[in-house]
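FW: tagging you since you asked about this chain on Friday. Here's the raw sequence from the shared folder, copied in full. Didn't touch anything.
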Amino acid sequence: MSVDAIFLTPEQVRELTGYRRSSCQVRWLQEHGIRYFVHRSGRPVVLRTNLEPHAASQGTQEPDWQALRSMR
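HL: got it, structure written out here
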């Protein structure tokens, strides 16, 4: 398994946050509740698995079927 398969690349972090500066990327990640750690170079490092819960929560949710049934 390659490192790119585990972590977002710096370009992907840039694309995700919309920022080039590491300090701005860190602030954006914090504001959006995405876990990361700071590499000794000062750049934020994001595990791909840290994005999965966010992607799932952004998707469509099941309707409350019980509430819909009670409206009949």
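FW: The longest strand covers residues 37-38.
HL: agreed, and Residues 13 and 37 are 12 Å apart (CA to CA).
FW: great, closing this out.
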